[in-house]
Design brief:
The complex is a heterotrimer of chains A (201), B (190) and C (181). With 201 residues, chain A is mainly alpha-helical. Chain A has one domain. Chain A is built from eight helices and two strands. In chain A, helix 3 packs antiparallel against helix 7 and helix 6 runs antiparallel to helix 7. Chain A is globular, with a radius of gyration of 18 Å. Chain A starts with a helix and ends with a helix. Chain B starts with a helix and ends in a 6-residue tail after the last helix. Chain B has nine helices and no strands. In chain B, helix 1 packs parallel to helix 8, helix 3 packs across helix 4 and helix 3 runs parallel beside helix 7. A five-stranded antiparallel sheet of chain C has the order 1-2-3-4-5, with helices on both faces. Chain C has one domain. Classes of the chains: A mainly alpha (201), B mainly alpha (190), C alpha+beta (181). At the A-C interface, helix 4, helix 5 and helix 7 of A face helix 1 of C.
Chain lengths: 201, 190, 181
């Protein structure tokens, strides 16, 4: 499989959030602002690339029967490393992401890629797959948080966009807003995919 | 915090699905039929409570005593994975029908954010053992409640006329959003 | 049996390697993390009391005694101008809307609040997170410790405001009972 195709797969055709519909918990929770969404996305890219690489390198030395606990150990190790370095060098983001940083361990995306790709493919391909999926995830997060931040808080990346008199739709930065905006975004993505499919026939 | 406060907080005010965004994947995957929703809820309650107790002792007895707090994430998830395997074996032996009904959802409880989330939150909030147990029970009851409520609505939605693009996940998410608004109303309770 | 043993050993190796990697990571980062916490405290203290004031932790026995009676307290500082104590600062934890709040409240010995800073929080950006801003923290300056402290709430963030007030008043009570003589 050509590397570019693998990369593109993760971002569009098989986008973890919009197409595969996995990794939802953190998507909904951290997208209250674009900076948080971006930070979480990049953290997941780091963990995905690291775990995919290591699991791929060890795929021949890992017996199938214990591959699940092995995945868990590798993924949890990378998550903990990312946690530590964020706490030391990016404190405000570490606090903003809160409990969802350690929860990256149970983010289905990482597990799914380990099982479906890294365990069966070479290290370079796995690295690219991790990068593509991670960036696809980041793209989804940034899209969702852009909508929520602009219309829910009247700012983008912390920079206020509108004047004093703008009354943002506060509900968007609260839990219900997350569910509803994500539902609508997936719906839009579905329409776009359907249009593309019919136009290719 | 008193037990009653913890229970009300976890089931209603800070409902783990509608307010804390934990357990979304199984929530979306299992909440379309009320039977599977209830079954999943019960299994999760069992796993969450047991793992909360286990991880509490491991944290206080081993990690804290040896200054190994940074191993929390990895130790907790390994304990949970082992526990779920164990629960699977027990259910398989004791009730093959239940085992078949839950199917692939049982091992998936390992990656259910609620389990790891509750375990970590127990430590972060500084609960003692009793509070930990009730936090575990309350959170899983809240999760079960969310599942059952959602499945009730989704079963009806199957028969309704939903636009093509919104069928399945999108409408489930929007439904969850509306229910989340309702749960926001509990905010002033405690 | 032999196979189970082999599988067990492989997993054990994985675990040991991972624990080793994590220990190395921990060592690499814990110095920086401790540094940041200290800098955060000192920075907040200077903002609250002004540049000319020096700080030192409260005498160890007294501090431990207060912390034991009030577990939400993390640290207590004395503010000194030259050799005389001009105030105290209490760092404590309170419950916010999205998680714990780490607060630093400064008190002058004349019984007024010298300032308040939110050091750590997990509040909603644009709402509760604005408790960090001077527009909110300035509302605390000069208030008397004789009565319960209240300020105008952050719009759209009563949960966060109440959390801050709870923490500040808890600090106020400790100041009144333990430190203001």
């Amino acid at each position: 499989m050509k590397l570019f195709k693998i990369f593109k797969n993760g971002i569009i055709n098989d986008n973890p959030i919009f197409v595969q519909l996995i990794g939802m918990c953190s998507t909904l929770a951290v997208t209250t602002s674009v900076s948080n969404g971006l930070a979480m996305g990049l953290a997941v890219v780091a963990v995905l690339m690291g775990s995919n690489l290591v699991i791929s390198l060890l795929r021949n030395s890992t017996p199938e029967k214990i591959r699940i606990p092995a995945f868990v150990i590798v993924i949890a190790t990378f998550v903990t490393i990312v946690e530590m370095f964020m706490k030391a060098y990016a404190q405000p983001i570490y606090q903003a992401l809160g409990i969802f940083l350690p929860l990256i361990v149970v983010n289905c995306i990482i597990f799914a890629r380990a099982e479906a790709f890294a365990f069966k493919n070479g290290p370079v391909a796995s690295l690219i797959d991790g990068l593509g999926m991670g960036l696809g995830y980041t793209l989804a997060l940034v899209t969702l948080s852009t909508v929520r931040e602009i219309f829910g808080a009247g700012s983008f990346f912390g920079i206020p966009l509108f004047g004093e008199s703008f009354q943002p739709a506060g509900i968007l930065v609260m839990p219900p807003g997350a569910f509803i905006v994500l539902g609508i975004l997936i719906g839009i993505f579905n329409v776009a995919r359907r249009k593309k499919a019919t136009s290719e026939i | 915090m008193s037990i009653a406060t913890i229970l009300i907080a976890t089931i209603f005010v800070n409902n783990y699905v509608f307010a804390r965004f934990l357990g979304i994947c199984p929530f979306l995957g299992v909440s379309n039929k009320m039977e599977t929703a209830t079954g999943m809820g019960v299994a999760v309650t069992f796993v969450v409570t047991l793992s909360s107790i286990l991880t509490y002792f491991i944290q206080k007895g081993i990690l804290d005593k040896l200054g190994l707090e940074y191993l929390q994430t990895i130790v907790f998830i390994l304990v949970i994975a082992a526990l779920v395997q164990f629960v699977e074996l027990v259910i398989k032996k004791m009730s093959p029908t239940l085992y078949n009904a839950l199917g692939v959802y049982l091992p998936l409880i390992t990656t259910n954010c609620v389990v790891l989330g509750v375990a970590i939150l127990n430590i972060q909030e500084g609960y003692n053992l009793i509070q930990t147990i009730f936090n575990a029970i309350g959170s899983s009851l809240g999760f079960t409640l969310a599942l059952i409520l959602a499945s009730g609505v989704r079963e009806k939605l199957e028969l309704a006329d939903v636009p093509e693009a919104l069928k399945g996940f999108p409408i489930a998410l929007i439904t969850a959003g509306l229910m989340s608004i309702a749960f926001l109303g509990f905010n002033g309770l405690i | 049996m032999k196979e189970t043993l082999k599988l067990g050993i492989i997993l054990f190796v994985f675990t040991v390697v991972s624990a080793g990697v994590l220990a190395v990571s921990n060592n690499a980062t814990k110095g920086k993390i401790a540094e940041l916490e200290m800098a955060g405290s000192i920075g907040a203290l200077q903002e609250i009391f002004g540049e000319d004031v020096k700080f030192q932790p409260l005498e160890e026995n007294k501090q431990n005694q207060i912390i034991e009676a009030n577990p939400s307290v993390v640290e207590i500082f004395e503010a000194l101008n030259g050799d005389s104590v001009v105030g105290y600062a209490i760092k404590n934890i309170s419950k916010g809307f999205g998680g714990d709040l780490l607060l630093m409240t400064g008190f002058n010995i004349d019984g007024t609040v010298s300032g308040m800073r939110v050091l750590e929080h997990s509040e909603t950006p644009g709402l509760g997170a604005r408790s960090e801003e001077p527009e909110f923290t300035n509302r605390f300056i000069g208030l008397s410790t004789a009565d319960d402290i209240t300020v105008e709430a952050l719009s759209g963030a009563t949960g966060t405001t109440n959390g801050v007030l709870a923490g500040v008043n808890s600090a106020r009570e400790i100041f009144n009972s333990e430190l203001s003589n």
